[in-house]
Write the structure tokens for this entry.
Amino acid sequence: MTDAFPGLGTAHTVPELLALRARATPQGEAYQEWDAAAGDWKRLDWAQALARVQHFSRALATIGLPQAARVAILLPNGLDAMSVDQAVLATGCVPVPLHAIDNPGSIAYILADAEVSLLVVAELAQWERVRDAGTSLPHLQAVVVTQAGAPLPASSGPVQIFTLSDWLGRAGDQTALPPGPAPEDLAAIVYTSGTTGKPKGVMLTHANVVADVAAVLARVTPTPQDVFLSFLPLSHTFERTAGYYLPMAAGSSVVYARSVALLAEDLRNVRPTVLVSVPRIYERVHAKVLETLSTSPFKKRLFDAAQDKGWRRFRARQGLAPEPLGDAAARGGWARLLPWPLLRALVAAPLLEQFGGRVRVAVSGGAPLSPAIARCFLGLGLPLVQGYGMTETTPVVSVNTLDDNDPATVGRALPGVQVRIGENRELQVAGPIVMKGYWKRPADTARVLGADGWLSTGDQAEIVDGRIRILGRLKEIIVTSTGEKVPPGDLELALTADPLFDQAFVVGEDRPFIAAVVVLNPREWARLAGELGLDPARAQSLSDPKALRAALERMERRAASFPRYAVPRAVHLSLTPWTIENAFMTPTLKLKRNNLMAHFAAAIESLYTRR
């Protein structure tokens, strides 16, 4: 790859990318992290970031891990997560990023499956919960706890336990480092849920990562003056590529958000210029806006008028066909007569200030963006572009650009990436971004990755004028609005292992969390209702908070082996069985999901609106 990174030249591995960046702009601002003790932001330039990584690399070398050892990282976004990840890569080992809110059983499964040698956690309690999950971890040699000042028990058995300071203190300036990685070596094993219910480890190479970063850089073009706000978990490939390695290639600054709870405040204070997010963040802002407008018809008229006029202006600038006014006149009323500069000042500017007021590109990925959200933010001036990808493609396949932005599509394929439509309108992808395969699962790999290098995505699509439009899914995988993937069939099977639930139907596509509709076993319901002091014959008992809470608690126990995001957080209870006769089951006794979704549409909607 020649001149893949402007100003850096050529990099073939992620460690080379960091080294080249530190050499090119050593004093350029690299990272900011909130220092609670000092009450201020801690800053690192690129030279300091590289020095920190080198210190972590020497500490890692002292443990004596085997070549290409897997190192699991269970840390919140921040300097420690970056430093550990980079040190693992620099020493030829393989990061296994873990989701911070995943349940201990799922984490233990990943540690065992990936044959992890070292685990880095923020708190000792995280390790203790994983240890107590009951899964044998014969390959695990050591655990490093990053929380400062936490007393640790004496190491017992084969697993050594270190504090971060003690671990780093083992490293000497002359500590020899193992050879760095080659382009075809693994840069990560990222676990993603599949149809088997157990997560699969996607093997991504350094060549995969470097190719995808270079291709995204050519399309999104961040600069050293840009500021990213990092808040999506680094366990997500979308954040790793677009919010972590991409700014490294561009020399942009990354500020680590303090927490999700403080995200709105951080957006206003940090004032990022590049935003990498899943649809859920935009949904939250949109919902808050609508909640505020509900109390003021005057502001609602202004908002509708600004959104409609801005949307028409956006479509005209992009050369997209104008939409009919429809009921826009009724929505905006007299406010539609106001000039755009005034509507922009009264409506658009205050909304954009919630994102800091200087975002020049906002990338949405990980899950589909709803047309209503796109219309709102694009109409009011947020430069929002939608992309498409999957963990198996490192992950970005395509993305719109600021000057070629059709929000009804996911844009054009990145440079060097090939796409085509296969049987059943399935989108297929080939190119240097396609994974090496699934860890220790050759049969699963062969099912999606052909000998010719074409990857079957499982998504139906059409390609019109070079733009990709996603139509739906061939495989039954729920993708929440936060980008988490959940196999409904396996989860439903786990739930119905409880005698209380005769049948289960889980939902959550493009929603913020998983919910369930269940048919109760009459005898078990009568028993549970009696314990709760409810009359099982009264229909109102099915919606009683005590009954709902008890059902969710039992679901949580049955879904203990699933990632935490797959555990239902809301439930609708029913006593009417789903049968072939009432058109809710197929002759082979499979759920007719579309029929169930239509029948329970109001109930499902209430599960999300009442929270």
